Amino acid sequence: MTDLPRPAENGGLPEVSADRRAAMLRLGLAVGVAYFAPTVLAIDRSARAQGPSCAKNPKNC
Fold first, then answer.
1. How far is C-alpha 49 from the geometric centre of its chain's CA atoms?
2. Cα–Cα distance measured from residue 61 to residue 55, given in angstroms and rounded to the nearest whole number
3. Superkingdom of the source (predicted)?
């Protein structure tokens, strides 16, 4: 027999702690928000630009 270590049950990948998984989840969510925020804000501004003018019709503002 050889003295080589046996592969782990999970395919030889190292164990990852729950704290690290939570931190990676938060990081991923923050990156997603930072990526999509400009798009959402641009859509919001363009939607307001198509609305009625307050100078011509102040009752609807």
1. 27
2. 9
3. Bacteria
pLDDT in tens, 1-56: 566 666 556 666 778 899 999 999 999 999 999 998 888 777 655 555 565 666 66
| Cα–Cα distance measured from residue 14 to residue 8, given in angstroms and rounded to the nearest whole number | 8
Where along the chain do its domains lie?
Answer: 21-48
DSSP three-state, residue 60: helix
Residue 2: half-sphere exposure toward Cβ, Cα within 13 Å: 3
* Concatenated DSSP letters of 18-59: HHHHHHHHHHHHHHHHHHHHHHHHHHHHHHHHTSPPTTT-GG
Distance between CA atoms of residues 4 and 51, nearest Å: 71
Tokens representing residue 12 in the block = 């030889």
